[in-house]
Amino acid sequence: MKRQSILGCILVLCLALGFGTSTSLGQAVYGSIIGTVTDPQGNAVAGAKVTVTSVTKNTSEETTTNDSGNFSVIHLIPDTYRVKVEGSGFKAYDVASVLVQVDTTVRVDAQLQVGAITQTVEVTSEVPQLKTDRADVALDFSSDYVEKLPLVNRNFQSLLLSAPGTQQIGWSHAATENPQGSQQTFVQGQHFSGTGYELDGTDNQDPILGIIIINPNLDSVEEAKITLMNYDAEFGKAIAGLMVASTKSGTRSFHRRSGISLVVRSAGRLSRINYSTLAITRGLVRPTGSAKK
Predict the structure, then answer these.
(1) 72-76, 128-132, 136-140, 223-227: which has the minimum mean pLDDT?
(2) Three-state SS across 97-143?
(3) Superfamily of domain 26-123
């Protein structure tokens, strides 16, 4: 009986540690929005409804403020969000654009004004990005930066060279054990294997060679973050730096890339179709321009 009790306690402890670890690691690819809601006198407003809506995906997350007027919305995919706060007896408070990045927390405080809930106070200025909740030293790269920066060989890992205190060494592993083209870069004078890599919240570092496992295509990267010091304890195995990346997800809009072309074989001849203009007909994507032989 005693042995069964001990085994039961061990099982419960393992489950608790497992859930805690998954939550901690998952935060590496997400961001959060926190804030405090007050009335004109600065008193906390409890029970206010907070709606966070993705501008690109039109998906929403809802929460309410606690007795202290605080709220938090976690596990947000990096994106631009609209934050709306509604409280009984107050005008709605609407922030049109809040940028959430990988592994960051954005604070949105709202001071509500007395009035009908049908009235809205719209905030058009950007939310200050000064970090007061953490002390990490990091560089953030949006998808626009990743696509347009002149990176060496268009290699994702070349972003590391944008950070101060980095140096690429002149050798690399053989192609047979490094088909992904991982680069060896010293960060803060530390060995290249001391740099940790995370992709979409999962460990992306070879435990033997110390190099990146999946070197993502630049067009697939939504955002990248390079942390040089004071990163969270969940990344404790990294002693030099940390490179975190998240890949793109779908939106509610159809996107195209200009200059994309497709070589097709028709009637024994090769033709190049220019996809600079696309049309959607009955759910199919069709080129509207003429084919070039």
Answers:
(1) 128-132
(2) EEEECCCCEEECCEECCECCCCCEEEECCCCCCCCCCCCCEEEEEEH
(3) Immunoglobulins (2.60.40.10)
